[in-house]
Each structure stands twice: as C-alpha cells, then as structure tokens.
Prior knowledge:
With 93 residues, the protein is an alpha+beta fold. It has one domain: Ribosomal protein S6/Translation elongation factor EF1B (Alpha-Beta Plaits), CATH 3.30.70. It is 29% helix and 52% strand. The protein has 2 helices and 4 strands. The chain has a 4-stranded antiparallel β-sheet with strand order 2-3-1-4, with helices on one face. Strand 2 and strand 3 form a beta hairpin.
Amino acid sequence: MNKYESMVVITSKLPESEATQENLKLVTFIKEIGGEIIETDEWGKRILAYEIQKMKDAYYFVNHFTLSADKVSELDRYYRLDELIIRHNIIKK
C-alpha cells in the first residue's frame, strides 16, 4: 500500500453541500477499492487560475489516502467519468 494525495476540483454549479457530498462519494469509492483515507482537506470555493468550461471558480478538495498501486488507474478512470469533476490529480507521496 502506497501513500497518495489527490486533489479534485468540483464544478461550482453545485451548492457547497452537494460538492461536499460529491467528495464523500469519491472517498467511499477509494474505500471500496481497498484504500484507506488518512485525511481530507476541504479548501472550499476558490477562484481558478484560468477559466475551465466557462467557470471562474470551483470547489477544491484534497484527499490523503493509502491504496495499492494497481488500483490507481481504476481511481483515475472513476475521476475521468465523473462529469462534476473538472480537474484532478493523483500524486504518490
């Protein structure tokens, strides 16, 4: 099990409570594929450096977790298929 950090940027079209629920779905998925959540940092609504899909701001969440290396591609696929996530990254610590 490796340690990872993942930042997700969720569309600002949602209210803050729904954006938080969306991040909870991501955390649940990480647990379902065998990961363990260490910590979640909710940064809230921030202004983007540049417009993405005609949006000037979005909700930021940083999740710290452990996960098997072979499951990272599965998590990346999940991020790409979720239409509410406008940007994401997964970094091995």
